Amino acid sequence: MSRVTAELLTIGDEILYGQIVDTNSQWMSVALSEAGIQVIRKTTVGDVESEILKALAEAESRVDIVLITGGLGPTSDDLTKPCLVKHFNCELKINDEALAEVTAFFKSRGRELTEINRQQAALPTCCEKITNKIGTAPGMWFERNETVMVSMPGVPHEMKLMMKDLIVPKLKLRFITPTIHHQVIRTVGIGESFLADKISSWENSLPPHIKLAYLPSLGDVKLRLTAIGESREELIREVDSLVDRLIPLAGEYIFGYGEDPLEMVIGNLLREQKLTLSIAESCTGGYVSHLITSIPGSSEYFLGSLIPYAYEIKMRQLGVKPETLEQYGAVSEPTIIEMANLVRAKFSTDIGVATSGIAGPGGATPEKPVGTVWIAYSDKHHTVTKKLQLSTDRSINIRLATTAVLNLIRLSLPKEVLTHS
Amino acid sequence: MSRVTAELLTIGDEILYGQIVDTNSQWMSVALSEAGIQVIRKTTVGDVESEILKALAEAESRVDIVLITGGLGPTSDDLTKPCLVKHFNCELKINDEALAEVTAFFKSRGRELTEINRQQAALPTCCEKITNKIGTAPGMWFERNETVMVSMPGVPHEMKLMMKDLIVPKLKLRFITPTIHHQVIRTVGIGESFLADKISSWENSLPPHIKLAYLPSLGDVKLRLTAIGESREELIREVDSLVDRLIPLAGEYIFGYGEDPLEMVIGNLLREQKLTLSIAESCTGGYVSHLITSIPGSSEYFLGSLIPYAYEIKMRQLGVKPETLEQYGAVSEPTIIEMANLVRAKFSTDIGVATSGIAGPGGATPEKPVGTVWIAYSDKHHTVTKKLQLSTDRSINIRLATTAVLNLIRLSLPKEVLTHS
Fold it and tell me: Which one of A27, A44, A65 would you mutate to disrupt binding with B, by most B Cβ within 10 Å of its Cβ?
C-alpha cells in the first residue's frame, strides 16, 4: 500500500506576525495521522494574493491532499476564496444550498442576513460545498489531477467539527489508507530517560509496524504506540499484548491510558471508593485545588482547601503548633505531617494532603534552597511524606510539586488494579 | 526603504505528527517583527533529507533571511547539519572553539564529554559559529547571494537566548530595517467588539504608519500599536500621545501596559499601598489564589485562602450563617457578602474577596443556570458585589470568574492613577 501524503496550508497575517499560536495545525496533524494520512509539510502564508497563489500551486504539485484553513471571513482581507477561484480557473457564484444554510444560521440566532454575510454563500463553481453546522463560512472540496484540496474556516471549533464529521470520513473513502491504531499510556513520577532505560528491552522488541513515541511534559511522560496494518482487530490485539508486557517493567508509573489527566484518574478513584479529600496547600498556592476542581463533578469527593500562605495563618487557621514551626520551620517533615493531619481533621475528610516549600525566587536558606518542597498524604491508616528537590523556577516548581502531590494521592490510596481499555 | 523578508523553517517529525505545538515560531515572529523584519512564510518539514534540501533551496530563493530551528540534536534522526553541508556544498569539521565550549559545558555540570556530544562541535566549514550559552548545539550563520541563513537548536530557551543576544542584533547590523515601536495596552472587563465601538473615532484617526491590532483572550483584550518610521524618539512621542487620547475613551478598562498580567498589576497596587489580601473562593476552586501566588513576592501581600467547596465547609470553616445559606442559597448576594467579610476577619487582612457560583455542568436550578456567579470585594470602607452570567463551559467559567474577581479588586481598591511607561 503506498502512503497518502498531505500538506497543511494556513493562511493569515495574524499567524505570521505571531499574534496567535497556530494550534489548528497540530490538531489536524493528529487527526490525519490517526486516519493513516501522513502530513509531510506545513506552510503558512499571509493575506497576500501572490503568496497564496504560489503556495496553492506548490502544495498541489507536492501531495495527495492539501488542507487549507483561514482567510474565509467576510471582510476584504480574507482572500482564500478569490485565490481558489483563480487557482482553479472557475467562477464565484451564490450557492443556493449554502445560502439556505447561512440564512437559517442567522435566523436561529434572531439576526438578519446582511449583504456581507450573504456573500459567504458565494462559492467557486468548481467545488463541492462542505456544510458548516456551527458557523457561516462553508468548507470547499476541490479535486484535480488526483489531488484533493479542501478549504476550511480557521475558527478552531468550526474546523474541528467539519474535519471530524465530514472531511476525514470523505478522505478515507477517496483514498486507500492503512489502518492505524493508537494507544497512549500515561506515566508519572519518572523522567523520560529513566523510563527509556527501564523499558529498553521492551522497546527494542517492538515489531517494525508498531512505533513508540515519548511525549514528555512537565512532570509526566506519555508513551504513544502507533500500529499500522490492515486489520483493526489484529492491531488492537497486538497493542494490548504489548501493554501487558510493559506493565511488569513500568507498572508503578502508569496512571492511566488515553487522554484523561492525572486529576481525573484520582477523581475517579476517590469516587469509586467513596472517599473525600481536603487539601492544605502552601507553596502550591491553590494549583492543586484548581486541578482537582477543574474536573466536572469534583464536588462529590473534594470538600475544600485551606491555603495557609503566611506563617501566622498556618498557626491560627490551620492550627500548626508554634513550637513545630519554630523548631523545624514551615518547610519540614514535622510541619507537613501536622498540616495534612490537621486539614483532614478540620474538614472531616477521609484524606488530607499538604504542600509546603520554597517556590522561589525568594525565601531560600542555605539548608533549604529554592525548590525544596515537602508533601504529605494522610488517611486514617497512615501518613506518607515525601521531600522534593525541584528547580530554581517558581512556575515549574508549582507545577512539579502539584503533579507530585497528585501522584502521592494515587500511590497512597487503597490499591486498585488499573486496567487498560 | 525596501522591506526585509524572512522565512521560518522548522524541522522535525514531532511537529508534523502533532506531538508538540510549535510555539517557537510564534515567538520568533514577534521578535523579528519588533526588529522591523517581515516574516512572509513559515514552513515545517520532517526529518527527511530530500524534504529538508528542497525546503532550504526554496526558502533561500524566496527571502532575505531564513531562520531554521530543530534537527540539531546528537542522534541519527537529526539531519539539519548534514543537509546544510550538502546545501552549501562544504565540509563538516570539528570547530575548535565549539569543542572548547561544549567541553566546558559538560565540565560545569560534572559530566564527561562522550563521542556523540563531541560531534556537536562539528560544524560546516562555510558557516560562522553562534555560541549556545546554555546548551550543547551551537548555532550556525551562513551567507550566500545576499541571503542569510541561520540554524538554531529547537529547544525553546536555547533558541530564545541565542536570538535575543546574538542573532537579532547581528541581523540588524547586516540589514537596513525600519525602526519599529510597539506599545501594548492591556484592557479587561469589556469585549472586543464593544471596545472597538468605544474607540472607533480614535482608531479611524490613526496615521497610516501606525497600525492597531486587537488581541483578545479569555476575559481581556490587548491593543497593540505598531509604529513604523525612522526616528525611535519620534515614534515613541507619537504613540504616547495616541495613548493619552485613548484614555478618556477607554481608561476605566485599561489595567496596564506591556506584558504584565492583571495579577501582577494588582500585586503591585497592593504592595505599594501596603495592603494585605485573603480569598474565600468556592466556584473558582483555587484558580484566583493560583494566579495571585504565581507572582514572585506575592507572600508580601497575600496571606492565604479558604476554599469552602462543600456547603458544610462554608458554614463550619468559614462561618457563613446557616440561615443565610438556607434562605438565599450558596450562590447569592447575602452569602457572597458574608464570605468576603468573614475571610477578611478570620485572616485579619485589609481586603477579603470571595467567589461562589455554578461552574457547571451540574448544580444548576431554573433560577440559577450554569454560569451564574457572585463575586465580592470587602475592605474596612466598603463591600462591593457583582453578579456574573457566564457560559455553559466549566473551564471558561472558572477563568472568566477569576478575571472578574481580579478586576473587581483593581476597581475597588483606593484609586491610583495608572501611568503608561
Answer: A44
Which residues in chain A have their CB less than 8 angstroms from residue B307's CB? 279, 286, 289, 293, 304-307
Chain B residue with minimum CA distance to A360: B296
Q: Is 2.130.10.10 the CATH number for B179-257?
A: no
Please give the sequence-ordered ranges of beta strands (E in DSSP) within A191-315, or none if there are none: 210-217, 220-229, 254-257, 277-281, 302-307
Check if B5-174 and B179-257 are the same fold. Answer: no
- CA distances, B154 to each of A32, A221, B97, B145 (Å): 24, 19, 22, 26
A290–B294 CB contact, under 8 Å: no
* Phi and psi based region of residue B100 (left: phi greater than 0; alpha: psi -120 to 50; beta: remaining): alpha
DSSP reduced 3-state for A150: strand
A303 in reach of chain B (CB within 8 A): yes
Q: Which of B39, B286, B292 sits opposite A16 (nearest CB)?
A: B39
From residue A9, how far is each of A69, A71, A77, B12, B67 by CA, in Å? 7, 11, 17, 17, 19
Q: Find all residues with CB under 8 Å of B2, minimum gap 6, and list them.
A: none
Inform me whether the C-beta atom of residue A294 falls under 8 Å from chain B C-beta atoms: yes
Predicted-assembly ipTM surpassing the 0.95 threshold: no
Q: Is B343 helix (H, G, I), strand (E, B) or coil?
A: helix
Strand ordering across the sheet containing A179-188: A210-217, A220-229, A179-188, A254-257
Question: Each residue of A252-305: pLDDT tens digit?
Answer: 999 999 989 999 999 999 999 999 999 999 999 999 999 999 999 999 999 999
The beta-carbon neighbor of A394 closest among B27, B296, B398 is B296
CATH superfamily of B269-412: CinA-like (3.90.950.20)
Q: Which residue of A has its CA nearest to B289?
A: A286
pLDDT tens, residue by residue, A50-95: 999 999 999 999 999 999 999 887 666 679 999 999 999 999 999 9
CB within 8 Å of A251: residues ≥ 6 apart = none
Domain ranges of chain B: 5-174, 179-257, 269-412
Chain A residue nearest residue B24, CA to CA:
A21
CATH placement of domain A5-174 = 3.40.980.10
Place of cell 479587561: B188
Q: Which cell is A401 given? A: 510539586
pTM of the model: 0.85
Q: Are B51 and A40 an interchain contact pair (Cβ–Cβ within 8 Å)? A: yes
- Give A262-412's CATH code, choosing from 1.10.10.10, 3.90.950.20, 3.10.129.10, 3.90.930.60: 3.90.950.20
